[in-house]
Design goal:
Layout: H1 15-25, H2 28-39, H3 86-98, H4 100-121, E1 126-137, H5 143-148, E2 154-168, H6 173-239, H7 245-279, H8 309-312, H9 314-334, E3 340-351, E4 363-372, H10 380-446, H11 452-486
Antiparallel strand pairs: 1-2, 2-3, 3-4
Helix pairs in contact: 1-2, 3-6, 4-6, 6-7, 6-9, 6-11, 7-11, 9-10, 10-11
Length: about 500
Amino acid sequence: MTDSTFPPNAAGLTRHGVLAVFATKLAPTAGIVLIGLLLSACAVGPDYTRPQVSEPAQYKQAQGWRQATPSDALARGAWWELYGDAQLNELVDKLNNANQTVAQAEARYRQAQATARSSRGAFYPSVDLSVGKTRASQGTGSSNASLSSSSSGIRDTLNAQLGVSWEADIWGKLRRGLEASEASAEASAADLAAMRLSQQSELLQNYLQLRVMDEQTRLLQSTVEAYQRSLEMTQNQYRAGVAGKDAVAQAQTQLKSTQASLIDLIWQRAQLENAIAVLIGIPPAHFDLAVRKDIPTLPQIPANLPSQLLERRPDIASAERAVIAANANIGVAKTAYYPDLTLSLAGGYSSSTYTDWISLPNRFWSVGPKLAMTLFDGGQRSAEVDRAEASYDETVAKYRQTVLDGFREVENYMVQLKVLEDEAVVSNEALDSARESLRLTQNQYKAGMIAYLDVVNVQTTALSNERTVLTLLQTRLVASVQLIAALGGGWDGQMRPDEQP
């Protein structure tokens, strides 16, 4: 409102004039309270505006992706169910309930919530009650008197006092502090979501690698059996004088090398199994994942998936809320230049004896405002404002870098999946050719047309192609998890019921 809203009255007073008249008519304390309430509408420091971030209109690796709008209120859902593995779903449920890293983040979130509640409580008056007894001595002014009676100057005093104090938030220090605390609590909530998503992603990557490793183990076991039969056949041919000793050595070398590769997979699988146990909060000695024959399904990525990066990634939401908190702290620092107004009221009873302690003659009370400010501090306030502004600049840079890193991760995983998909097609074709070549070579060797060294070379090539296909599948599965995590979890998002506008 402006003064024109209040037309001059008969005395020619505007709105401010009327308020001044009322203030002079009220008691001095009430007048100060009224002025404090009127001034409390303002808040020192800059209001928050989201930092500008350079965002591409679409992803380079996928046409049709739209620019994101920051909002982490989208539900992520059980995105791990995209892999169609019931045992994996159970493990993720255990992680959500028992992961100790997530529990630490959850405890930090509760601390941030408590800090926000504490900041909110500063808006209310504080009420203090004190009851005590003091024993004091005062000199009589005469050394002879003190020698004659050591207790003549001793006095007992009983006090019971109730006090109320309230700080008027004239310059917005409390409001800016609450704004910073609430933003920090929201950032902590986003950190919790980011940590949970990170741990889920790590669990899925370990589990998928373990399942592919089980398939690699079966491949090597069957290969070892085949090489064992080849060695026995070569030994029989050597004893019959058909094959030379070099063929036996080659067959044995091939068998032992494959057995060594098979043994190497044992400790690799154990490490993955132990990592999963820790992720779900179970000692590795009490956890075991049985070997299975199936590998979880690789999810299909939609061709025109909308860009949910800034909307789904909790680390970006956390970075932005840190900017909000830093911006509010600038206002808190600037309020130190202005005086603090505290209103206090106290009353109680004071007596030297218990008998008439709580009685009308022994009562006392006090009421009044207190205005206090620092006149000189050697530049401390100015330095604190500079520190708060520098901290704000740091959080802005961190927010922008987090956004850039997010886009980079998505681009990297998308191009990786695309290239791996093309590579998998070629590798499967090479595997088919290697299997056919092995079949023909073995027939030629059995017919005595070629030496065993030719069979060994073709067998090695076929095994290498088999392992390459499985390694590519493992890499594609891991990359798909990383892409989903980079997008914030899942393909689709709906506003949570409690987040509906």
